[in-house]
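Explain this fold:

***
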Amino acid sequence: MSDEVGGRVRQMRQKAEELKQAAERVNDPEESRRLKEKARRLQEQSEQESAMGSGDVYPME
């Protein structure tokens, strides 16, 4: 995996973790759900980029 892809994947995973933590702190259930969903999508995207960066041409399902 190239350094550029690896760095981007790390940033995406870090942002997803930050969103999960923010979702735990927020008092509004709808906002919490929205943040958790955004974190989940970001995590999935980071996994796909990681797989493609490592030479796996098929996205993970």
